[in-house]
Specification:
Isopropylmalate Dehydrogenase; binds nicotinamide-adenine-dinucleotide; globular; alpha/beta; 336 residues
Length: 336
């Protein structure tokens, strides 16, 4: 599927006149099963020689559950200090949306999730026994950690037509999260052209469903972003359509579809390449190839709207056919 999705990279290179050099790094679970070699911090450090990484989905039913996923996904985020998790929630076509009466233009949200702090930093511990058993983990945010992602979110908001940034937190029930609001206002003072507001995560979840058109750029914590982005993915077509970036601006960053390895379809050639092609688009945007990003987005949007792409689930088309169709649309600038 990743190989098929790379056809859009070939097409973008041919049309817009740039070249990439590519190297395949095989960290698959199948390789672990064969050689019992795990992915180490040192191996992750070695990725710094690249400008970007396109990560195919990880996971194999015969590998120890979650091990490769943790080693690689968490390893990349922490090891390469990828402090932004970028998740566009774009409704390519209204038939992909489970909400009644929403048009495609109603959902175009860019979620900027902090990616290196919060409750995920330490594993925590369960102590005591019986009724004294306690599960405890620390939720921590550092000022530099909040500042850098907030600045990134303001920059993204400034570059979009609506120029609106909504912070999603839980500063009422978790008062330490007030620091996010303080920093939002401090940094926001330098972005007078960007409208800003803040919202509690429970209310934001409701608004995502009832009035998604209210949002432009959403800035949120690691934990809330984890949940809110899946809710958002469900609004725009589910796992199959989504792509995300794990970004450290100016440094090597990692782009991936949001779905896993879909093992039940292994070898059948029916997994959808749409999420991975979206990830290629995000990667090209990160590399400064904005025209290519726009062309891939347009090809996907028009592919769905025109009925050329039937869907993003396994029954809706052959992997290679879908990928070839999108690649040709990128080459030509249109589908038919
Ligand atoms: N970032 C990652 O690499 C990542 C993310 C999630 C899960 N995983 C791993 O993937 C493996 C499978 O996990 P899962 O089944 O919970 O999640 P999954 O995302 O692989 O699959 C969930 C559902 O979506 C379908 N699906 C997923 N991708 C699809 C595609 N491209 N085209 C069509 N249908 C698709 C699957 O068949 C399944 O019905 C596990 O090992 C899990 O740990 C990896």
């Amino acid at each position: 599927m990743t190989e098929a999705a790379l056809l859009v990279l070939d097409a973008a290179e041919a049309r817009f006149g740039f070249r990439t050099t590519r190297e395949v790094v095989n960290w698959s679970s199948a390789r672990y099963i064969e050689h019992q070699e795990r992915v180490t911090r040192q191996m992750i450090e070695g990725l710094r020689r690249f400008d970007a990484v396109l990560l195919g989905a990880i996971g194999h039913p015969d590998a120890p559950r979650g091990m490769m996923e943790r080693d690689i996904i968490i390893g990349l985020r922490i090891g390469l200090d990828l402090y932004v998790n970028l998740r566009p929630l774009v409704l390519y076509d209204e038939r992909l949306c489970p909400l009644k009466g929403k048009r495609a233009e109603d959902i175009d949200i860019l979620v900027v999730r902090e990616n290196t702090e919060d409750v995920y930093v330490n594993a925590g511990a369960i102590t005591g026994t019986g009724k004294d058993e306690v599960a405890r983990v620390e939720m921590s945010f550092t000022r530099p950690g909040i500042e850098r992602v907030t600045r990134y979110a303001f920059e993204r908001a400034r570059a979009r037509p609506r120029k609106k940034l909504t912070l999603v937190d839980k500063a009422n029930a978790i008062p330490v999260q007030g620091l996010w609001r303080t920093i939002l206002d401090e940094i926001g003072a330098g972005y007078p052209d960007v409208e800003r507001d803040a919202m509690y995560v429970d209310a934001a979840s409701m608004w995502f469903v009832q009035h998604p058109e209210r949002f432009d750029v959403v800035l949120t914590t690691n934990l809330f972003g984890d949940i809110l982005t899946d809710l958002g993915a469900a609004l725009v077509g589910g796992l199959g359509t989504g792509a995300s970036g794990n970004i450290h601006p100016g440094k090597v960053s990692v782009f991936e579809p949001i779905h896993g390895s879909a093992p039940k379809y292994t070898g059948q050639g029916v997994a959808s390449p749409v999420g991975t092609m979206g990830a290629v688009g995000l990667m090209l945007d990160h590399l400064g190839e904005r025209e290519s990003y726009t062309a891939i987005e347009k090809a996907l949007r028009e592919g769905f709207r025109g009925g050329y792409i039937k869907g993003a689930d396994a029954g809706s088309g052959r992997t290679l056919d879908v990928a070839k169709g999108v690649a040709e649309a990128v080459s030509r600038g249109r589908w038919a």
